[in-house]
Design goal:
- The complex is a heterodimer of chains A (760) and B (437).
- The longest helix of chain A has 23 residues.
- In chain A, strands 7-6-5-11-22 form a five-stranded parallel beta sheet, with helices on one face. In chain A, strands 13-20-14-15-16 form a five-stranded parallel beta sheet. In chain A, strands 2-1-3-4 form a four-stranded parallel beta sheet, sandwiched between helices.
- In chain A, α2 runs parallel beside α5 and α11 packs antiparallel against α12.
- Chain A is of the alpha/beta class and 760 residues long.
- Chain A folds into five domains: 127 residues, 3-Layer(aba) Sandwich (Rossmann fold); 191 residues, FAD/NAD(P)-binding domain (3-Layer(bba) Sandwich), CATH 3.50.50.60; 155 residues, FAD/NAD(P)-binding domain; 33 residues; 156 residues, Rossmann fold (3-Layer(aba) Sandwich).
- Helix content of chain A is 31%, strand content 19%.
- Chain A contains 21 helices and 30 strands.
- Chain B has 437 residues and is mainly α.
- Chain B has a domain of 274 residues.
- Classes of the chains: A alpha/beta (760), B mainly alpha (437).
- β19 of chain A pairs parallel with β1 of chain B.
Chain lengths: 760, 437
Amino acid sequence: MIRMEDKIGVFICTGYGIAEALDVDALCKVATEEYSVPFCTTVDSCEGPGLDSINEAIEAQSLNKVVIAGISPRRYVDHQFPTAVIVEKIALREHVVWCQPAGEEDTQMLAEDYLRMYITKIQKMGFLEPFQPEEDIDTSILVVGGGVAGITAALEAAAAGYEVKLVEKTAELGGWLAKQHKSVPTRPPYRELEDTGVDELIARVQADPRIQVYTSATTGAIEGAPGLFDVTLKSAGNGKPVDEAIDKFRVGAIIQATGWTPKDPREDLEYGKLDDVIRNVELEALVKDKGRIVRPSDGKEVKSIAFIQCGGSAAKEHHSYCSSICCLTSLKQALYLRESDDDAKAYIFYEFIRTPGQYEDFYRRVQEDPGVFLTRGEVVDVTRNEDGGLTVTVRNTMPGEHIQVNVDLVVLAAGMVPNSADGEAIRALEDAKLKATDGKSGAQQKEAAEKVEQLARHEGTEILNLAYRQGPDLPTLEYDFPDSHFICFPYESRRTGIYPTGAVRQPMDGLAAREDAGGAALQAIQCIEMTSRGEAVHPRSGDKSYPDFFLQRCTQCKRCTEECPFGVLDEDAKGTPLLRATRCRRCGVCMGACPERIVSFKDYSVDMVASMLKAVNVPDEWDEKPRIAAFLCENDAFPALDLAGQHRIQFSPFVRVIPVRCLGSFNLVWVTEAISAGYDGVILIGCKYGDDYQCHFVKGSELAASRQTNVREKLEQMSMENERVELHQLQISEYERIPEIFNNFAELIEEIGMNPFKGM
Amino acid sequence: METAGRTSQVEQAAEPKSPQIAPVENGKPVSIEPDLDFIRVLSTQGAASFKECFQCGTCSATCPISPAENPFPRKEMAWASWGMRDRLLRDPDVWLCHHCNDCSTQCPRGARPGDLLALIRREVVVHYAVPHFLARWVNDPRYAPLLLAIPAVLLGLALMLREPLQDALGITGNTGGKIVFSFSSVFPHWLLNSFFGFFGILAFVGAFVGVVRFWRAIMADRPDQTSAPVKGMGASIIAALKKVISHENFTSCTTARARYPAHLGVFFGFLALSLVSIWVITAKFNPLISSDFVYPFSLLSPWKILANLGGFSLLLGSMWMIYDRLEFSDNAGESNYFDWIFIWTLFLVAVTGFATEFMHFLRLEPHRHIAYFIHLVFVFTVLIYLPYSKFAHVIYRTTAMVFAEYTGRNWGVPTPVAPGNGVSGSQRKEEIENGEK
């Protein structure tokens, strides 16, 4: 059983009440007699001096694989053990002693089964060799977008010692910040308008020897993976033929700071019909250009302005999210007017005023101004009046009245739309186009044509032009913001090594964008450094394993290439997956997807988990002790089990828990294995999915749920009841639901009856 | 986008929006042209942060005496922020406010609605005053010496010219003939009575004209023009006076709790002193007392006791007011010149009154005459500037309270919010009648 080079040691803690609740000698016998483990001993504790004694024994016995049965794996950190040793930890305390009655037969059986499972697992585990590509990892960073976020990201990365290529589509750096007359106050006491400071930022970028600036350029193509991105820049005009390749280089990571575009205001507010109804960006340009505010229609000096917030976005169908800067911009522009004339009047009509954080002080300061009128209400009409001005009608103002004001100018606070492209949608559009012409049946072609129509707005929207199987840009979430796993990390995207920052990621002002860009730069640097060590980035930071594809058995079913949440796998012409290992986050979704079971990690594989299942001692049917296999997501559900233990919540002793990297890595064969091994049911617990997903791998638990139809087929083939497999979603804070789930399922099994395959 | 999610929830709750103008409930949309100077006056003279109001409505919710319908001071805060001076000058609600300041201490923005309303009341007094310049003078510290000089000079002239006047008017004999030790050698009663009577009538006319202007404005501006009054005028006046005398609204205050006893003291002290004064002035023509009326009253005379108690009450009440406003300005409210000049004058009336009384007992010559003169100057000041000083609140507030009774503004009666806006006066009348049954 044990490979020649392996030397396994088992340590069983007697502290924490373990020795009082369990027969420790019997546990040792499981290791030494059933599994012929050469070394098994008890320790008082597995922390502090206890841990030291374990490490001494590892050295003295030359152990290279160690199982510690004691406290939860979450109570250790990696550097506590010698690097060359594989250590598996069993949470006897949290998962057995704290949630089962002491001294009972079932409790002892549970503990022994865990020992069997983990000894089996460690026997199957291989020693990790971090992934190293054949070529050297490049450590430079590409920043796409030369606005305040891009500039700051470039400066920050350069300051940390990394070479930066900064690419800007227009002829000038500075983005929207360079178009502003003044900036809202960024420092206490947040009262006076400030210079934008953009000139200084641009000068610093241009003077930085580590930053190479390309203006009037776009990314024509990006191939490869983190550490190995090959970028082709093409011209965006300005003297050169458009689309001409202007440079090629390699970078290690990419920061996408492509910024935002002002939203077109809603039509019924006469924008575009009345000259004197303009957007905030146009007012800004007017002030910057002329230094004063004049009416577009007749050049008259403007003495009163009505600002309409949300540019009409209060109507849900128009613009349904807060852009966070429009209120500040209107407050600022109201001061432009007020500073020009002490009797000028600025009306600001809003649905909500939002001035995040310390900007509240600026809001108050503008409120205090006698000539600024902030009123909640709904603007219903803007018309030209007899005096040549505009009359604005507002209903349901705060004291409940319908009011009218006469003004010289109406300014619509236009919202922010991210300059993003939905890579997945672009890919889907291409696929649909192909299908619309080459589809097998007429119905299929018609369906595809409809899809082409639906996705038409994505036509030609490419920004990054990634050569990825799953599409040329970052996938986006609601409102077209590039996907960001906001639960755990704001700058994350679903393309490893590519980090969106600034207003493309989330609406934000210049100050927030600068802070954000610093974070994105650190994130890019982190990716480069970890990739060069062959380690995974967030959320399995530091994981040295990587998937291995046994391609001889691949049937080109494309499930892995389609389902990988991170676009890791490209395809060759036949559809065989091509692994770009440095893109990988090690979630194992490919392993869960593969019907041929050809994907495995050295420390996590289909066979390894199946063997753990089989290691459990399944009692005979007439013992009336069912066995339930529970697969818990390592990110939320498994730690939640620790919490259940900490709260001493008791639950059924018949459940055997196996942690999985992600519920998306759950391979259906494990259901078959469990049933044929005599288990009476299988529970899967993953993270919340849907719009506000909490899955660390974006769609793992969602995939597991969608694969349930296949589970049902499997069960039917085996003439088993559908109810024997259950799927749940759980947040880490819902630990108290775990016993409920386990106990209810145990009762259900009692109702349906034992697995007839038991003992076969 | 957490914020986005919240936005959509709110929108789901709200009625679907249409780009068309909704049918307007109360006539046409109000055209607004903010009065920036008015805003500057308010924000520089005692309501520094009122524009920070964001219309949350905490003020109206927390106010113990605001009615459930169209409560103050929230709407006044909005109107003031808009610089709607004309509307505020015609708003009776600013007078229903008793400056409890519960709103000011509860306001999450520190906008101090109570202080703003006090300031607006000052603007109302100034606005309706006739002649207008007197109100401006009363409000300007630079005119304080002049304002004190006017009564001093007038009274001094009258006293100096008393003999020629006496001769010219044909008044003979010593009016204080029976008096043992009197002031009348210097301050003859006929002179004081006619002097104060004359200027009292002037002040009364000034006050009357102001109040009539105010009454017309608020009646013209009431929302329900057509409906009949809820009560008769007489009944309204009686109801309002009952509330004034009982200090019913002050008792509801929590923040400015001290205002209740202080105001009670000043109010009843002043009332008692006025009563005694009127009694004495009319003594000659009053059949009830003319027979055995003898100056001076004995210390044990009920009139003397009432006068002394009134004096004490005025003294203590005004001292309490001053202390409260100095020590607890957060609760008592921002005090400006308009407040101070009135309270200090009242205090000085009481102080000089007692000083005169003591000197009179001690037979201090000529100190008692000097003290009496100063006392008379302060009394005169209070009297003649009534329509122009904070004293005018006596008439404006009472008028507003009568208006509230008359039109059925259910102030002080916290009722559940009625569905729909604006219960008409006649509906309200029915409600009251049903309630009384």
